[in-house]
Design brief:
Elements lengths: L1 H11 L21 H4 L6 H6 L24 H5 L6 E7 L2 H12 L5 H20 L3 E4 L4 H7 L3 H13 L8 E3 L11 H7 L4 E3 L8 E9 L3 H12 L4 E9 L2
Parallel strand pairs: 1-6, 2-5, 5-6
Antiparallel strand pairs: 3-4
Helix pairs in contact: 6-8
């Protein structure tokens, strides 16, 4: 019955590739080992073009590195972060940039499922290594979320949590400061912008390991600000996963 419903939905609402926005074949039409990495939703053309972040990458923030002998990116080599370590799924090229833009501002909430499915095989070993107690999506300020209609990080975190069988908690951290968009600021401005931006709702966060979830990692200011609050509230370690990261 579920298969019939899915086929009917594919006819009425053909799925579009999150990266080029072209219609992709209906479920079950594509077979082969590639489905293990691309379990549906991504067209054949984009499958060949996607740039997954692979080794070498920064051992702190996960940004891709050019030199295999290099351990940390330039930023992490000179700056102390509050998070333990982070990883990103994809390099932030044009197709990924436009995809995340549609996901955040274009109402394409269905992309969350595809991103999560792509993340699972790539990040399973990382998640197994850190063994998080909980996933926490980076929160939006209530005014921005009301204007947008949803928090894209929350949608992605919930999908990922189900695939990983890890609880997702989106009420533990809230954004109390309606900050300016980080992309409009330089590195120093980003840090100042996020001072006292987050609040932890629980008085005592008795969690050994927290895994933060967001869409993009750039300088790490957002992850640091939220990690600092969680650690101050009692969390032992904070890690993160994002869909994409800049270079």
């Amino acid at each position: 019955m579920n298969g019939i419903v899915e086929r009917m939905l594919d006819i009425l609402y053909p799925p579009h590739c999150p990266f080029c926005d072209e219609i992709v074949p209906a479920r079950g039409k594509e077979k082969g080992t590639a489905e293990k990495m691309f379990p549906g939703g991504v067209c054949q053309s984009c499958r060949k073009k996607l740039r997954f972040v692979t080794d070498p990458y920064c051992m702190k923030c996960g940004k891709p590195l050019q030199d295999p002998a290099q351990e940390y990116c330039t930023d992490c080599a000179k700056r102390t972060h509050f998070f333990e370590q982070g990883r990103s799924l994809l390099a932030y090229d044009d197709s990924v940039r436009y995809s995340i833009y549609r996901f955040k501002y274009g109402g394409r909430k269905e992309y969350a499922a595809v991103y999560a499915q792509l993340t699972l095989p790539v990040m399973q070993s990382f998640v197994r290594m850190i063994s998080p107690d909980m996933l926490i999506p980076v929160p939006l300020h209530r005014k921005r979320e009301a204007r947008r209609g949803y928090n894209q990080a929350q949608l992605y975190a919930r999908r990922l949590g189900k695939l990983l069988s890890i609880p997702c908690r989106d009420d533990l951290a809230i954004r109390v400061k309606n900050t300016k968009p980080q992309k409009e600021l330089d590195a120093a401005g980003r840090q100042n912008n996020l001072k006292k931006a987050f609040k932890i709702t629980g008085n005592d966060v008795k969690l050994k390991t927290i895994l933060l979830i967001d869409d993009i990692y750039t300088t790490g200011s957002t992850m640091d600000a939220l990690s600092q609050e969680l650690l101050a509230a009692g969390a032992a370690k904070v890690y993160f996963i994002t869909i994409a990261c800049g270079t």
